[in-house]
Amino acid sequence: MIDAIAWKFQTGSQCVHLPEKYGKWRGVYNRLRMWAVDGTQERVFTALMAQADAEEDLNWAVSVDSTIVRAHQHAAGARNKARPASRATMRSAGPAAG
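The line above is the sequence of Transposase; the predicted structure tokens follow.
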């Protein structure tokens, strides 16, 4: 179960895509959900952080992969087309005489 949860967090994948060697994905999902609700997940994480900090093995380097950070479509650098100034329109006096 722990290996399955570790795999999920390492890959960032959904539980549905869990390899068969870890068992049924639904069981892993339910356990992970229960642990998140009852605070077990936070207690485990806090204990692991404290242990790593005591061993001076904690590295706070942050890496952002640009393949997952996308710019808004308006930030793509497309040129703005200059629109002609709007011309005031006047109503005609009536049908043209002919």
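Note on the example: Residues 33 and 41 are 9 Å apart (CA to CA). The chain has a mean pLDDT of 79.
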